[in-house]
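DM from R.C. (forwarded with permission)

"hey, sorry to bug you on a friday — could you get me a structure for this? deadline for the figure draft is monday and I only need the backbone to look sensible"
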Amino acid sequence: MDKLDLKDPVFATYVIAATIMILKAVSMSWLTVLRMTQEKGGFRSPEDLRKTRLNPEPNPKQLEPNERVERIRRILLNDVENLPFFLVAGFLFVLTEPSLLLARLLFYGYVISRLLHFAAYFTAQTHDTRATFWTIGSLILIFMTCRTLVAALGW
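My reply, with the result:
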């Protein structure tokens, strides 16, 4: 099983891309908390209205949706909807022993497409812009998955 060794450049490329995507997704939770703190709102749970050091002046309006907080939540939800597919498809793709060039193009292409999607979403670009970056990542996933299926079927 030397394919699953960090000395294998294809597997190492996957690990780098997967790690970046995981860190990006986890950072969205931190960014959500930061936004809630900045906005002093966008909270979801009634207990968030208790007076604390971080919320010295609770107000029922803090439970109302806040667009700046919700935007980050939508970005996180999009990551949660897409990242597991990349993690699984990328791992299975490594097992097909692709060339290093192809692996880098696909794995790093996916990462770049997701980072551009984040930037477009974060800066409130049009749906067309976001969809373009999402589509690039989606097509990469479809390619990797189909190539993996073909390899598994022995075609």
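R.C.: lifesaver. The domain at 2-153 is CATH 1.20.120.550 (Four Helix Bundle (Hemerythrin (Met), subunit A)).
me: no worries. The chain has one domain: 2-153.
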